[in-house]
Amino acid sequence: MGFAFVLSAVPFALAGPDAQLSLCSAPVSTTNGCIIGHQAQKRSHVCEYLGVPYAVPPIGHLRFAPPEAFTSDETLIASAYVNCIQPSSRQVIYPEATPQELQILANFANQAKNHSQSEDCLALNIWTKPSNRTGKPTLVFFHGGRWTGGTSNTPYYDGQFFADTEDVIVITLNFRINIFGFPGAPGATQNVGLLDQRRAVEWIRDNTVAFGGTPDKITIVGQSSGGVAVDFWSYSFRTDPIVSGLISHSGNAFSFPVNNQSLSSSYWYNVSTHVGCGNTGDVLPCMRSLNTSTLLAASSLARAPPQPSIARSIPAFQPTIDNLTVFADYPSLSSAGAFAPIPYLHGNNHHESGYYRISAYASNNATAPESVWTAFELESFTCPTARAARHRARAAVPNWRYRYFADWDNLRLYPGSGAYHGAEMNMVIGNSEGVSRVSASEDEERLSRVMMRAWAAFAGDPVMGLEREMGWPKYDEQGETLGMLGFGDEGGLDFVGSGTYDGECGSLGDGVI
């Protein structure tokens, strides 16, 4: 049974509340069987489907294994989020923190107290506005969290506002993280968390029509490590990318180091030794027999070696180079144009370290000179984005680059936190008040509408949408094509030459070449 989004030949937007409630609760036929949703709480024109499985629960013999397609002939009441297993993190009150700091960080870092967690978490959430429109673009969001934490169950990724404002389909998803998604077991399939993302997008390809979409207009969007995953995708699935557009926020394949197999194996055996499964050979059967809490506690004891800068700490359990899903030499691959020629929208924030300073402070009140943070922002965000933009432009792949500047009162973490890591997601999702519990200003709401429109225009037509609808030119390293979003805390889009911010990348060697 399909989902026509039409009630008695009258667009849903013209129907009354009772008809709306009936439409959202009508069964939608998918490869999982029928799914029943409900009206979104804040935007009643939107239908919401929460906790829709896209893979078989990765438990028992499927723990640490690639995801398997899920099928069912039962009806699912899609009414509740699920959360993947992850270590707990403590809340940190930074010096001169604003009243909303803890609220924002709790929503960003999945510190909500009421979030139950499970290994059975491979599910996605869907928001769509019923209407006569068919073939709507679908935007699929990969959350960040340094491969260790994060969730789709957060106001940062509440898709009802974006789906309502732009009449697009918004989908968020969970994927396995930390040791469950990136175990590093030698001889086994690596990076199953990345394969979870692939399985989710395959499900979306097969089912988006039922929600008013089309498989020809799927764009994947990621923030931080989620942005890295989006860029990884372009190298891993060159011959069958499925998606038509890529959007990376504050992270790409050049941003952070990953593990080689030897390093990942050492962490794996560190845990297996600690729990009594041995330190050599095939310990997978034993590791799969442990209860979740034992495994999580042991994995939390594994520590990556200290990095030269406190700004660039890395987790033990993260992607491993296997030259299938994660490669050893992205600079060479990128320079050679060895990525899927998919249009790319990517960028970073003007003061990424505004968030990372809190993370560093959480580690024994660690601080660093301003020069350390400046180098960190260049090395991890500005220069990686510059390199990716240049290489794609030289390979004739359409790409657009942005830099986000806004520092809104309701999203400020402390005086001077600025346009910190993750702040721009509030503009795209359109729920800053839900994140901070403080009302947004008119300029902030204006910028949110601009960014929603831009992201939707790109998803609707990744080749021409931004130029046609926003006047945003394709990236050209010689022209004024770097989009400045919220510059001067205004709700607009302006353009400047990329050299304005890339000039110091040369000090990092081949940082942008």
Automatic annotation (TrEMBL):
EC number: 3.1.1.-
GO molecular function list: carboxylic ester hydrolase activity
PROSITE patterns for this protein: CARBOXYLESTERASE_B_1
Coiled-coil residue spans: none
Any Pfam family hit: COesterase
Main EC class the enzyme belongs to: hydrolase
Domain named Carboxylesterase type B: residues: 28-363, 370-479
Span of the signal peptide: 1-15
Keyword set, alphabetical order: Hydrolase, Signal
Keyword Hydrolase part of the UniProt annotation: yes
Cited Gene3D superfamilies: alpha/beta hydrolase
Family that this chain belongs to: Belongs to the type-B carboxylesterase/lipase family.
Protein name: Carboxylic ester hydrolase
Protein species of origin: Polyplosphaeria fusca
